[in-house]
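tool=predict chain=A
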Amino acid sequence: MRMPGHWRPHQTILPSLAEMSSLFRLDSSSSSSDDDDELILSALHIAHTQYEGTSAPRWGGSVVGRQYIYRDRMSGAWRLFNDYFSDNPVYGPTFFRRRFRMGRSLFMRIVQAIEQHDDYFVQKRESNGRLGLSSLQKITAAYMMLSYGVPADFMDQYIRIGESTVIESLRRFVIGIIEVFGDEYLRSPNEQDTARLLAIGERRGFPGMLGSIDCMHWEWKNCPTAWQGQYTGHVHKPTIILEALASQDLWIWHAFFGLPGSHNDINVLHRSHLFGKLAEGEAPPVNYTINGHSYSMGYYLADGIYPKWATFVKSMKSPLGNKKKYFCQAQEAVRKDVERAFGVLQARFAIVRGPARFWDKATLRNIMIACIIMHNMIVEDERNEDEDFRYDGVGQLVRPSPREVRNRTREFHEFMQAHHEIRNVQTHSQLRDDLIEHLWSRHGDMY
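tool=predict ok
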C-alpha cells in the first residue's frame, strides 16, 4: 500500500522504449526500409530520454518515510528543562558548571538577552498547531557545539533538534552574542579599567604594564583549495591567526582575528588596530615613574619577535649578570598571562581548539569573537571580589558604560608625532633598563 506522502499529483506513467517502438511499428507501413526504422528508433530514444528526465520532477519538502523524522521535540524540551533549568533539577549547580563551563545564572542571562534580541529563538506555534523548538533547545544545542566542538547532529539524540536547525541556531547565536554583549565585554580599557590594570602591574613589579600580547593559530580544516597556499605557514596546515591582549585575570582586552596563517606576529601587528586609539589620542592617560624617569604610555609584555617599540617590553636572548637574569625570569613569568588565556579559552570552547569545519571566514570570525566575549563574561562572573578594583563601598559591582567619551580629533602632525613616539627605540631601551633596576631593587635579595 502506497503512503499518501509518496503520491505525486499529475504524474503520468511513461511506457518503455520497446513498447513505444512496437506500437509505432503496428501503425507504420510495411514497406519502410531498415534505414527509416533506425532513424525512427533513434528519435524515439532521444524523446524518451528527455521525457524521462523532465516529466516527473522531484517532490520537495519533508516527505513522510523518506526525509522527515518525528523527533518528539516536546519530550526533548521537557527533558532538558528538568535536567538543568527547573527549580529542582536532576543535575545541580556543580554538574551545570562542569558541563556548561559557566554558572546557571549567567547562562540564563545570555538566553534571555538572545531571545529578546532575535525573534528566531522565541518558541512559536507551527501551522499544524504544534509547538516548535524552545529557546533553551536552540541555544543549548548551539552552545554545546561551541563548548564541546561536536558535530551539528550530535545533540539530536538528547535535545531532539535537527542538523540544519542547529547550524542556523549557531550562526544566529554568535551574531547575537556579538551584537548584545560585544560593546561591554570586548571593549578597550577605559579609565577605570586602565587604573585597575596599572594597579595590578604595580603590584607584580611592572609599573605601567597593561597586559601581555601574543598570537594564536586556529586550524581551518575546510579551507578552500585555492586559498591553502596563503593560509599555510609554519604550522604546515591552513590556519587563521588571532592576536590577543590579556591581563592577569585572563580577561582578553583586544582581539584581532582573520589574517591568514602565513603571516607572523609582526605582520599581524602592523595590520591590527591595537594602537589606533593611542595614536588618535582617545586612549586613557597613563603616567608613571620608574627609576626617576617619567613615562606617558603604557606597555605590553611580548616575546622576542615583536619590534623594539616604546609600548613593548621584551626579554633578552643571553642575559649577563644577576639583574638581567632576574628581569628575564620575571618578564617571562608575567608574560604567560596571554598563553594561559589562550589555554583557558580553548578549554572552555573546544570548537576553537579543534579544526574549524565551516567554509566561510565570516562565520569563523563570529565564532571566535563570540567565544572571547563569553570567556570574558565567565571571567567577570567568577572574579574574586577581593582582587577586583571596580567595586564601590557597598560591595556592588560597578559596570563600566560601553560608551566612551571621544576627545578632540587630532591634527595630522599630532597623529604622526604620537605614531613616532609609539615606535621609539630609545624609549624602549630606556624603559627596559629602568625595569631591570626597579625589579632588582625590590627582589634583589633573592640572589
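The beta strands are 209-219, 239-246, 252-260, 288-290, 293-295, 299-301, 312-313. Residues 322-348 form the longest helix (27 residues).
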